[in-house]
Amino acid sequence: MTTPSAPKTPSAPAPQAGSHPPAAAYRNLVVATIGFALTFWAWNLIAPLAGVFGSDLELSSFAQSFLVAVPVLVGSLGRIPVGALTDRFGARLLFPLISALTIVPVLLVIPARHSFGAMIVVAFLLGLGGTTFAIGIPLVNSWFPPAHRGLALGIFGMGMGGVALSGYFTPRMAKHGENLPFVVVAIALAVYAVAAAVLITDHPDRTIPTTSLGKRLGAAGKLRVTWELSALYAIGFGGIVAFGVYLPTYLKTWYELSPTDAGTKAAGFALVTVIFRPVGGWLSDRIHPATVTAWALAVVAVFAILQAFDPTLNPMGTICFLVMAAGLGTASGSVFALVSQVTPQPQVGSVTGIVGAMGGLGGFVPPLVMGAIYSAKDSYSIGFMLLSDLALAGCVYALGRMRGAKA
Question: Do residues 245 and 68 touch, judged by C-beta distance below 8 A?
Answer without folding.
Answer: yes
